[in-house]
């Protein structure tokens, strides 16, 4: 699944009707009145904004502004996390299939909370991830790992991931990462 589209789905599912209406009002100078009248949810609004290239994976300023205006700092943080993931991916990183995070995401599944607790991630952060990605198990795990990396900073080590996986009896996943 495209991470950019997943971001918009996550934001849209968190918006109330009143918030979508407020965002429509703020988009009056960007979207024609007739098109705005067709908008009934966040997905439709974001689709139009993407069609008109007001927002794009590398162009999120207007989206951030909208979320700030409707006081949805929680959703704004999702956009910031997305940007950090996109902007801080150096070209010299290993192939996608070699990253420990990808191996974990592909193999841990419903044991994600157990793993995150083993890594020591606070319950508050787990609850935040759970609420933001209620219906997307893979994204929950991915975002939880990113939260752990941010929380630990330079102390976030692959060795800690392996130790935590073994602590959760996920030895095959740990072995694959060690390879």
UniProtKB/TrEMBL annotation:
PROSITE patterns: DEATH_DOMAIN (PS50017), DED (PS50168). Residues 97-179 form the Death domain. Residues 3-81 form the DED domain. It comes from the Eukaryota. GO terms for biological process: extrinsic apoptotic signaling pathway; positive regulation of innate immune response; regulation of apoptotic process. GO terms for cellular component: CD95 death-inducing signaling complex. One of its GO terms (molecular function) is death receptor binding. This is FADD protein. It comes from Chloropsis cyanopogon.
């Amino acid at each position: 699944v495209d991470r950019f589209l997943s971001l918009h789905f996550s934001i849209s599912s968190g918006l109330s009707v009143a918030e979508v209406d407020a965002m429509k009002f703020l988009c009056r100078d960007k979207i024609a009145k007739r098109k705005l009248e067709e908008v009934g949810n966040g997905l439709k609004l974001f689709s139009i904004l993407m069609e008109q290239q007001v927002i794009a994976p590398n162009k999120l300023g207007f989206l951030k502004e909208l979320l700030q205006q409707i006081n949805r700092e929680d959703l704004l943080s999702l956009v910031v996390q997305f940007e950090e993931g996109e902007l801080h991916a150096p070209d010299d990183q290993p192939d996608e299939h070699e990253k420990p995070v990808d191996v974990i995401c592909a193999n841990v599944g419903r044991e994600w909370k157990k793993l995150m607790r083993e890594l020591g991630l606070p319950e508050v952060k787990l609850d935040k991830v759970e609420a933001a990605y209620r219906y997307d198990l893979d994204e929950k795990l991915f975002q939880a790992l990113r939260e752990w990396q941010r929380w630990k900073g330079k102390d976030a080590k692959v060795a800690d991931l392996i130790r935590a996986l073994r602590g959760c009896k996920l030895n095959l996943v740990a072995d694959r990462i060690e390879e």
